[in-house]
Design brief:
It is a single chain. This protein is mostly beta strands. 6% of the residues lie in helices and 38% in strands. The strands form two sheets. A five-stranded antiparallel β-sheet has the order 6-5-4-7-8, with helices on one face. Strands 2-1-3 form a three-stranded antiparallel β-sheet.
Length: 138
Amino acid sequence: MKAIPKPTPETQPFWDGTAAGELRIQRCLDCERHYFYPRPSCPHCGSGTVEWVRASGRATLYSYVINHRPAPGFEGEGPYAIAVVELEEGVRMMTNIVGVEIVPENLPLDLDLRVVFEPRGEMHVPMFEPVAAGGGAR
């Protein structure tokens, strides 16, 4: 069984978003920059005046590794891609790539991606898949 995330008070708005089919990140109201991972103050300017916003769900592939060895929660599912994607809003997040055969030929850097949500119990985990011609964020 795959690990099920456990929200904290700082991450609860993020997980509430995934349950609603939205990818939410934080934005500083002072310097107006987005950031991810959730935290109470802006990592750019230190301001505590921040808000949660809905991200577009669009990203590009920044980096990845193809894992062929079983890991807890991924037994029998290899290979799988552990990736860093850069959201349209300029922030990077770690995720998995799904919806495509996991081979280097299918994973060129800067590949256009869109968010999808994998149900895990009552939680929904954001993953990214390649954008099909004419496709948009879900």
